[in-house]
Each structure stands twice: as structure tokens, then as C-alpha cells.
Design goal:
Number of helices: 11
CATH class: Mainly Alpha
CATH architecture: Up-down Bundle
Shape: elongated
Distance between the termini: 61 Å
Number of domains: 1
Structural class: alpha+beta
Helix content: 55-70%
Strand order of the largest sheet: 2-3-5-6
């Protein structure tokens, strides 16, 4: 008897050791972050030409929009961050994903239920039929050993999904701050252009009045009058689009701050309130994967695809489950305490190739996600390169426009002097003034393009937004849930 008991104990220890070994086995690939790009440049030509305006290899630090040195813009961006409804929705989605992780982790622990049953039964196989009451009450415990790590991979997949949602929050944050800065600049540009156009229209009206007077005295022809009327009418068409740009920017800023255009009006902006940043820090392409939320989203999707391969692989192997129960049961006049312990194993034998096909589909999905990740990285390089070239060409255009403005200013002053000396007519002076106003209008547009492309560069570089959700949570600024 002792030998038999010892033999049984050894088998029990061996069986338990085997089960522990199985529970530590997790099949499927362990996710590894893709190697960073070896690229060291976005566009060498643009980088060389902008050597005085950018600092290649330096990362963004702090809130990027403060580089424009506009306190009014700073306050507006903060208001938008606090009130934007897309950020509120993104925050709720992150919390939803975190709850899904907790739900998935529950499968790694024993499942304890409580069961109770009561009834009345009739017995026919006794010498005399009898009717009696019965009941059973007690806990039940079940535990999936997760021998090949299928549940662990599901948890890993949900954790990667949560990371994906956090990076989507960062992407929404980046888009929001970029949109607020862009709309504020468009509003300032519209105001500046409208002021220039109003001066131009005043000059056109003055010119038309002089031409009409000269026509009455016979000094000019009706053709000159018609030409002056045409210029005034054409220049008047410049105002409505600019007014629409101004109003659209106002409405967009209201919506970005979580308000309707009729409930809150954005403050006015002037271009003079902004300073064009110099020495913009531009991180290296090899660091881009850590700076842009869209690249990190693609990485999280790749991680999810990797975990999905592990789940599909685990489904090819047996599942081992343990269960135990303890109940107090009674029937008729008798009662007893009942307990039970069982181990069950389920292994796939034939399923028409479903499980292998599902695993192959997961592998193919991983390959597709990997290609998508690589494409996202390449596109991010292209976006930065395009923006650097745009800033480079903006600078070239700004120099040309400054030359045009200086030339127009010189012409205007010379015509004024000539008129004072009686060498030309007032019409020539007004034409020179009109040319100056048009050159000034062009300079405003070029300056606006420089500001907007600088905003796009900050956004293309990621805007130092990675980790903003954790910062908001740590500071207690995360949106509060209104439903409990």
C-alpha cells in the first residue's frame, strides 16, 4: 500500500510539474519593434539651403506653437485642448480599450462561480412512488491552464490595441494644435489682405473720380473712364473671398474649441502678432518612428498582428482545463457535502483545415501590417521633405516679392516727386500707388505661406505630442467621465 501511495504521489508530482511547464509555454512570435531607418536626410538640397533656418538632428522640445511668440495663440490652443470634443472621444476610447485589457486578463485567473438549485421530484423506481424536495448549493471553480499562451497573446493584442488608441489621441492632439495655429494665421492673413484691398479700392475710386473729371474737361477719353471703372469693379471682387476666408477661420476656431460659431467667437488676429520661428529643430529620419503618432499607430497595428499569429498558433494545440466544485446537496430526508475535481483536455484532430488557414491568414495579416508600417515611415519622410522644400521656395518667393515691393515703392515716390515738379499727372501717381498696394498684397500672401508651411513642418515632425495622454493623466487634466 505504501509503495502504491508513493507511486501515485510521484505521478501526481510529475503531472503537476508537466502542467506548470505547459502553462509557461507561449507559442507564436514575440514582437520586436522594427529596426529604425538608416536614412540621415529628408532632402539634402533643401536641408543645405535652409541650414540657417533649421537645426538638423535636434528634437522638438515643449509646445511647438509657442515658437510663434503669440500669447493670444497660446491661450487659444490651450482653450481648444481643454474643450475639443474629438479629444474627449479619443480619451473615452482609450479607457474603453484599457477595460478590454482588464477583461482579457481575467481569463488568466481562476473563474469562480456560485450555483444554487432547488426543486421537487417524483421517484418511480422505488417499491412505492415518492415525492421529495432536493437542493444543491455551493461554489464552482474553473481554470484554463493556457498551456500554449493563447490567452496571453489575446491580452497582448488588447494591450497593443490600447497603445494604438493612445497614439490616435496623440494624432488628434497634433492635428488639433496644427489646425488652430493654421486657422489663426488664415484669420490674420485675411484681415491684413482685406485692409490692403480696401486701400486699393480707395485708390481705384480716387482714380476713377479724377478720370471722370478729366473726361468732362476733354483731357481724357471715354475709354480711359471705362478702364478705370473696370479696374475698380475687378478689385472689388477681391473682398468677398477674403471675407469668406476670415469668417470660415472664425467658425473653424469655434468648432475646434468645442463651441458652435454662434456660441463663441474667436479673437481677432493680426500678422504682426506672430514671429516667424528661426532655427526650427528637425529630428533625423532615424528618430522619426518615435516622434510621429501615425508611425507609432502603424507599429501598434503591427504588434496586434503579431499577437494574432500567436493566438492562431495556440489554437492548433490542446487546451487543458481544470475544474473543481464543492456543494451541499440534499434530496428527501438525506443530505451530504459533495466535492469534485477534474481535468479536461481538448485537442483539434480534424477541422477541414480551418485552424491552419486561420493561422496562415494571421501570418499574411502580419506581413500586410509590416508593409503598411514601412509605407507609413516612408510617407512621413516624404511629408517632411515636401515641407522643407516648400519653406525653401517660400523664402525664394519672399525675396522676389520684397524686390517687387521695393521697386513699387521707389516708383511711387518718384512719381510723387515728378508730380510735385509738374512733370507728370496725378493719374500716374495713382497708378504707381495702385501698383504698390498690389505688391503689398502679394507680400502678405507670401508671408502667410511662410507661416503656414512652418506650421506644417512642426506637424510633420510630430509636434512633440508623443506621450501627451500620459502627461494629461499625470497632471489630472484628462477629461472626466460623466457616466458611471
Amino acid at each position: 500500500m505504501k509503495t502504491h501511495a508513493l507511486f501515485s504521489n510521484r505521478h501526481l508530482v510529475a503531472a503537476m510539474s508537466f502542467l506548470v511547464f505547459l502553462s509557461a509555454c507561449t507559442v507564436g512570435p514575440d514582437f520586436k519593434t522594427p529596426a529604425p531607418s538608416e536614412s540621415q536626410h529628408y532632402d539634402q538640397q533643401a536641408e543645405q539651403r535652409l541650414a540657417r533656418q533649421i537645426v538638423l538632428g535636434k528634437k522638438l522640445d515643449g509646445d511647438w506653437w509657442t515658437a510663434f511668440r503669440s500669447p493670444k495663440l497660446d491661450a487659444l490652443v490651450r482653450r481648444a485642448i481643454d474643450g475639443n470634443l474629438e479629444l474627449v472621444a479619443a480619451d473615452a476610447t482609450i479607457r474603453q480599450a484599457a477595460s478590454s485589457v482588464a477583461a482579457a486578463e481575467g481569463a488568466l485567473y481562476p473563474q469562480v462561480d456560485f450555483a444554487a438549485q432547488a426543486g421537487r421530484q417524483r421517484t418511480h423506481n422505488a417499491p412505492e412512488a415518492s415525492v421529495s424536495n432536493f437542493y444543491a448549493i455551493g461554489p464552482r471553480v474553473g481554470f484554463d491552464l493556457d498551456a500554449f499562451g493563447g490567452n496571453k497573446r489575446l491580452v497582448e493584442q488588447q494591450q497593443a490595441f490600447t497603445e494604438l488608441q493612445k497614439h490616435r489621441f496623440e494624432a488628434a492632439y497634433l492635428t488639433l494644435t496644427g489646425d488652430v495655429a493654421s486657422q489663426a494665421l488664415l484669420l490674420a492673413s485675411a484681415n491684413a489682405q482685406m485692409q490692403a484691398v480696401e486701400k486699393l479700392l480707395a485708390n481705384d475710386a480716387k482714380n476713377l473720380d479724377l478720370v471722370r473729371r478729366a473726361n468732362v474737361s476733354g483731357a481724357t477719353t471715354q475709354i480711359d473712364v471705362s478702364l478705370a471703372e473696370t479696374r475698380l469693379a475687378q478689385d472689388r471682387t477681391l473682398l468677398p473671398p477674403l471675407a469668406q476666408q476670415r469668417d470660415s477661420a472664425r467658425h473653424a476656431l469655434s468648432i475646434l474649441t468645442g463651441k458652435g460659431p454662434g456660441d463663441w467667437i474667436a479673437p481677432e488676429f493680426e500678422l504682426a502678432e506672430f514671429t516667424l520661428p528661426s532655427n526650427v529643430p528637425v529630428s533625423l529620419p532615424s528618430e522619426m518612428a518615435h516622434d510621429r503618432p501615425d508611425v507609432l499607430q502603424a507599429e501598434a497595428e503591427l504588434h496586434m498582428a503579431s499577437a494574432a499569429v500567436g493566438v492562431a498558433t495556440a489554437n492548433l494545440y490542446p487546451r487543458i482545463q481544470l475544474s473543481a466544485s464543492l456543494a451541499q446537496a440534499a434530496s428527501g430526508n438525506g443530505g451530504a457535502a459533495l466535492w469534485g475535481f477534474a481535468a479536461g483536455l481538448t485537442a483539434p484532430i480534424f477541422n477541414g483545415g480551418t485552424l491552419k488557414a486561420e493561422r496562415q491568414a494571421a501570418v499574411d495579416g502580419y506581413q500586410a501590417s509590416l508593409a503598411g508600417y514601412q509605407q507609413t515611415v516612408i510617407k512621413s519622410f516624404g511629408q517632411v521633405a515636401d515641407t522643407l522644400q516648400a519653406i525653401n521656395h517660400d523664402a525664394e518667393q519672399n525675396l522676389a516679392q520684397e524686390d517687387a515691393l521695393r521697386a513699387a515703392d521707389t516708383s511711387f515716390r518718384l512719381n510723387q516727386q515728378a508730380y510735385a515738379q509738374g512733370e507728370n499727372s496725378i493719374l500716374q501717381v495713382l497708378e504707381a500707388e495702385r501698383a504698390y498696394e498690389q505688391a503689398l498684397l502679394g507680400q502678405i500672401r507670401v508671408k502667410t505661406a511662410q507661416y503656414l508651411d512652418t506650421v506644417r513642418l512642426y506637424v510633420a515632425l510630430g509636434g512633440n505630442c508623443v506621450g501627451v495622454f500620459e502627461q494629461k493623466v499625470a497632471s489630472g487634466d484628462a477629461p472626466k467621465r460623466s457616466y458611471q
